[in-house]
Design goal:
Blueprint: E1 25-27, E2 33-35, H1 39-64, H2 70-93, H3 109-123, E3 133-134, H4 139-162, H5 169-192, E4 198-199
Antiparallel strand pairs: 1-2, 3-4
Length: about 200
């Protein structure tokens, strides 16, 4: 995918506070003023939260690893790419259909296919599951599971939004695939650390 496919952001931030949102209103990309409580704003707010957790996962991978090998470096780069793609998702959600212009950042089928490629790569060689796994075993595993559950929350909010407003279906597809990827990354991390997975046992006492 060309690096110049999407327009660069035209943003200058030299003052942190503006006071424009002090009464609970904010602006969409097209300039429309809306309440910060509307579902669209809450949806891309959750995307922002997810991005923070992805960043935490990336940093834990770096800190917790004794050696940055090729697979680990690949996963770190994948997470960095995902962070940028989530900003694209946020841009899509912050823009009403009538304000979408050529070259605006977005997620497309190619991004979904790239996630599928990474899922297949990191899932290769993992043992088959005979039950659901419980988060744990390592800090990075837990962080990936937290990110996964936040991702599912994002997905639910955006599905809800799609019933009320026009939403690009690729957003939902992307988040659905991303939660799968985060699950695989959690398993891969424990496997990389030689940590045995804890499986769900409904009869555990």
């Amino acid at each position: 995918m060309s690096k110049d496919k999407y327009n660069e952001p035209k943003i200058t931030i030299n003052k942190v506070y503006t006071r424009t949102g002090d009464l609970g209103m904010t602006s969409l990309v097209g300039g429309q003023s809306v309440s910060k409580s509307v579902l669209r704003i809450c949806a891309y707010g959750k995307i922002d939260e997810l991005n923070s957790y992805i960043g935490a996962c990336k940093e834990y991978l770096i800190v917790d690893s004794n050696k940055i090998d090729s697979d680990l470096k690949r996963l770190i780069n994948v997470l960095y790419r995902i962070q940028n793609e989530l900003f694209n998702v946020g841009n899509m959600l912050a823009t009403l259909e009538e304000d979408i212009k050529e070259g605006m950042p977005k997620v497309e089928v190619s991004h979904i296919e790239a996630l599928e490629k990474e899922i297949d790569y990191f899932n290769n060689g993992l043992p088959a599951l005979k039950s659901f796994v419980l988060p744990g075993g390592s800090k990075i595993n837990v962080w990936f599971h937290i990110a996964r559950t936040v991702c599912r929350n994002c997905e639910r909010k955006i599905v809800d939004l799609s019933y009320k407003e026009k939403i690009d279906v690729n957003i939902i597809k992307y988040l659905n695939r991303l939660s799968d990827a985060l699950f695989v990354f959690s398993r891969w991390s424990n496997n990389k650390l030689s940590v045995k997975e804890t499986l769900w046992n409904p009869n555990q006492i």
